Amino acid sequence: MRISVVGTGYVGLVSGTCFAEMGVTVTCVDIDEKKINNLNKGIVSIYEPGLETMIERNTQKGRLYFTTSLKDSIEKSDAVFIAVGTPPDEDGSADLQYVLSVAREIGRHIDHYMVVTTKSTVPIGTAEKVKSVLNEEIRKRGIEVDFDIASNPEFLKEGNAIDDFLKPDRIVIGINSDRAEKVMRRLYKPFLLNNHQIVFMDIPSAELTKYAANSMLATKISFMNDIANLCEKVGADINSVRLGIGSDTRIGYKFLNAGIGYGGSCFPKDVKALIKTAGEYNYSLEILKAVERVNNNQKSVLFNKISSYFGGKLKDKKIALWGLSFKPNTDDMREAPALVIIDKLLEAGVDLRAYDPIAIDEAKRRLADKNITFVDDQYEALIDADALVIATEWSEFKVPKFTIVEKLMSKKIIFDGRNIYDPKEMKEFGYEYFGIGRKLQ
Q1: What is the DSSP string of 376-398?
Q2: 285 and 308 housed in the same domain
Q3: How far apart are CA 353 and CA 259, in angstroms?
Q4: For this structure, is 18 an active site residue?
Q5: How many domains does the chain have?
Q6: Cβ of 107: how many Cβ atoms within 10 Å?
Q7: Alpha carbon distances (Å) from 173 to 185, 188, 260
Q8: Catalytic residue among 18, 28, 231, 266
């Protein structure tokens, strides 16, 4: 079976590579010539554990190709996946210009039956817009070509995307014909053989499922952050509360860790888009509006603790910042809580040194106009620091050499935005420790 995947960003590149790993012949298409040339040389522009090795293996086996020509790629394809970006517009809605541009290009070249599938996260009704654009372009050519539309949203977590694709909790496919279902079943046959759940549904339901899933997870995060803030006021400990409620099988433990808010390319964008979609139908999603409001406020919580501790006098204080990406195992800094903390610390006049094991280059690019010292070693950031701030829970931060830490820092103060340390243990080590919703010992 042959497919085309249009877009070599995070979703497109991971999806195309993983389909190839399952034995499908895949051509990944992008208009960015530099990116395609690099991919053909084995140079990958995004960081995802295991992805580079998998790309190399499948290109060598002749299952994975990269090109700038959509026309050539779809000539023998059974299906084409649209996996381009849908950035948020100024009003919070998803910008569909890239999706519809690809649909237009497909319509100009399609010459045989195929299933045109949206892999990008798109609002309800996008499939109909894609269909309309395709029909319009086909009519202009004065020909008749059958095709079907499908929706196949991705559920990939950055840092664990390959496992998420190859060992999915579920595969959601929205279709509107038996013929399209047959093609998609053939494509996903390896997953069926491995007993992974495939859920076929109507297209609008599939489009909504993606937004609803991410919004539910965002809701759990904001709820726990709200409870964490209450814990501090009543003298409770959020970790104890998490254990107490997570043991309820109706709730579970996932996404119950308190912290400094969610970020990344999905949750903030998808929550905004779903709120906007509901508004277009004259419905107000009050819970999601609160989720967004809590998350925006939560990103300032750690700075407020720092400012309060130093009595608002932060000018020329030396602060070490560990973690820049929005989560571990990725270099993605989109909507990262660290960005809010950095802006507020710099505005207060702090001398800031920052370290991240993967996102340092992305940080240098994104924050080139900021007065930050970026270092290549986590301990180098601590030299003469008045405090350590932890914004991302990278594994290497969880068990540092505290004997080295205390020798390098001028003061033993830690502001832990991810609750990776035990307050009791920190007290025994002689540190002043501030977490999120933690009961101080």
Answers
A1: SSTTGGGTT-SEEEE-S--HHHH
A2: no
A3: 21
A4: no
A5: 3
A6: 23
A7: 10, 10, 34
A8: 266
φ/ψ of 223, rounded to 5, equals -60, -45
Tell me: do 69 and 193 sit in the same domain: yes
Q: What is the CATH number of the domain that holds 285?
A: 1.10.1040.10
Which whole number is the average pLDDT over 321-336?
95
Across 343-351, average pLDDT = 97
385 and 249 in a common domain: no
The confidence score (pLDDT) of residue 441 equals 60
Reported pTM: 0.90
Mean predicted lDDT score pLDDT of the chain: 95
**41 and 135 assigned to the same domain:** yes
Same domain for 275 and 329, yes or no, is no
Q: Strands 64-67, 25-29: parallel, antiparallel or unpaired by DSSP?
A: parallel
Q: Domain of 11? A: 2-202
pLDDT at 202 over 70: yes
Q: 62-71, 82-91, 118-127 — which is least confidently predicted?
A: 82-91
**Residue 440 domain flag:** no
Task: Say yes or no: 9 and 92 in one domain.
Answer: yes
| Dist. CA 42–CA 55, nearest whole Å | 7
Q: Are residues 48 and 196 in the same domain?
A: yes
Residue 101 shares a structural domain with residue 46: yes
| Under 8 Å between Cβ of 29 and 53 | no
At 226, the pLDDT band (50, 70, 90 cuts) reads very high
> For 35-50, how does the pLDDT look when each residue is reduced to its tens digit (9 = 90+)?
999 999 999 988 999 9
Hey, what are 93's tokens?
């809605």
Q: Taking the CA atoms of 223, 225, 154 and 19 in sequence, report the sign of the dihedral they define.
A: negative
